[in-house]
């Protein structure tokens, strides 16, 4: 299975294509649109979120509410396009009024313009923008509907914004997901939530931005998704690749994460036990559910570090690419902090990787065939 996206931030719309998806999977469009709305929420998002209420229109691969096994394509119309038509029309000459020549430090602007030989940074930022993640959320949400009949669930929560961290970030227990959903920063801990919101407000007021850390947990996984036999079949490698591909993600860690480097083996590895009711299981889950590149039956726990948003309302130093004179970086309408939104993107990216691994493990052209082969 493969998920591809296309589309510019202020173009006509975003498009997704999912190839290799099994037939007869029930698709609920309301659930997809609910995930789209979850991506758009969060304290610290910029003005665009008020303009765009993303809705997904499925164009192919689904008939009467069930997948056909043929490529699924979908469209998310950019409601702002008519305002941007003079600057973004695919065919007509472009009005120069939105030309960008001062690249933003931390964004794809300068390197992208040099690489593709553009004199207008807009040609880069329109596609490098995290608006693209809307298409990945829609795709991941479709894949989540394949995971549902197998009882596989994926949730994410924010464990750090700037220097404020939620104390439960290193505990083995999952947070209260209903509390996370109700939180404006997707954080389950009320005291941390309040501090995070304050930190975002302070950053925003001073024209600055903040990053943070989110955690994704997956339950209901069978033993043996992924494989140790070849480097590019390892589940942790595939997850890290997919998560690192999310705009502004700069680190990925599983289970105990980087702390494994500090502790002796006895404090890192998860002891194995067996019981008639539970079969093989572990006394702890420091590995975060993956050993040897395979899911080991414990909950998958992965965390991502997101850097602060590059667009600053108090811009950093840059250079005008026309004159080579020192200037301040350009300012596009922007978020002050997008860690809560990135958490939803993380969930959907993980769903896509798990869906692909499940199809690889169970084969099957149809959902029925996959369920017949399913034995946890
Ligand atoms: C959900 C989400 C929202 C984002 N919103 C913005 C934004 O409003 N302004 C901005 O400059 N960067 C934003 N970013 C980050 C940039 O897209 C990203 O830093 C940029 O594409 C450069 O890629 P890199 O940081 O991975 O190197 C966002 C990222 C995510 C995941």
CATH architectural label: 4-Layer Sandwich
Q: What is the CATH first-level class name?
A: Alpha Beta
- The Cα radius of gyration reads 22 Å
Briefly note the CATH topology name. Answer: Chorismate synthase, AroC fold
Q: Please work out how many helical segments DSSP would assign.
A: 11
Largest sheet: 5 strands, antiparallel
Bin the strand percentage.
15-25%
Count of the separate structural domains: 1
Question: Approximately how much helix is present in the residues?
Answer: 25-40%
Structural class: alpha+beta
Oligomer: single chain
Can you tell me the residue ranges where pLDDT is under 50 for at least 5 consecutive residues? none
**Which molecules are bound besides the chains?**
flavin mononucleotide
What distinguishing features does this structure have?
31% helix, five-stranded antiparallel beta sheet, Chorismate synthase, AroC fold, binds flavin mononucleotide, 376 residues, four-stranded antiparallel beta sheet, alpha+beta
């Amino acid at each position: 299975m493969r998920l591809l996206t296309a589309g510019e931030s202020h173009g006509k719309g975003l498009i997704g294509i999912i190839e290799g998806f099994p037939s007869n999977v029930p698709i609920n469009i309301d659930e997809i649109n609910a995930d789209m709305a979850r991506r758009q929420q969060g304290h610290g998002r910029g003005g665009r979120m008020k303009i765009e209420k993303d809705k997904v229109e499925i164009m192919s691969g689904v008939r009467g509410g069930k997948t056909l096994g043929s490529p699924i394509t979908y469209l998310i119309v950019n409601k702002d396009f008519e305002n941007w038509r003079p600057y973004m029309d695919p065919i007509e000459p472009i009005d120069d009024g939105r030309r960008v020549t001062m690249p933003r430090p931390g964004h794809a602007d300068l390197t992208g313009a040099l690489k593709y030989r553009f004199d207008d940074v807009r040609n880069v930022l329109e596609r490098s923008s995290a608006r693209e993640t809307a298409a990945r959320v829609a795709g991941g949400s479709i894949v989540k509907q394949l995971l549902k009949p197998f009882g596989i669930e994926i949730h994410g929560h924010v464990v750090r914004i700037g220097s404020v961290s939620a104390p439960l970030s290193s505990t083995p227990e999952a947070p209260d997901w209903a509390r996370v959903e109700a939180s404006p920063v997707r954080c389950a801990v009320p005291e941390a939530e309040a501090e995070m919101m304050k930190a975002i407000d302070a950053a925003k007021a001073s024209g600055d931005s903040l990053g943070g850390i989110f955690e994704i947990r997956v339950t209901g996984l069978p033993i043996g998704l992924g494989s140790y036999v070849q480097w590019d079949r390892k589940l942790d490698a595939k997850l890290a690749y997919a998560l690192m591909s999310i705009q502004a993600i700069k680190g990925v860690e599983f289970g105990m994460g980087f702390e494994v480097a500090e502790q002796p083996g006895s404090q890192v590895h998860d002891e194995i036990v067996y019981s008639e009711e539970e079969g093989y299981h572990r006394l702890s889950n420091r590995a975060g559910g993956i050993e040897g590149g395979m899911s080991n039956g414990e909950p998958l726990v992965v965390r991502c570090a997101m850097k602060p948003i590059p667009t600053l309302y108090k811009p950093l130093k840059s250079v005008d690419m026309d004159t080579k004179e020192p200037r301040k970086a350009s300012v596009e309408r922007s978020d002050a902090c997008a860690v809560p939104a990135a958490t939803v993107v993380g969930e959907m990216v993980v769903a896509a990787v798990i869906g692909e691994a499940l199809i690889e493990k169970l084969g099957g052209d149809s959902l029925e065939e996959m369920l017949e082969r399913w034995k946890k």
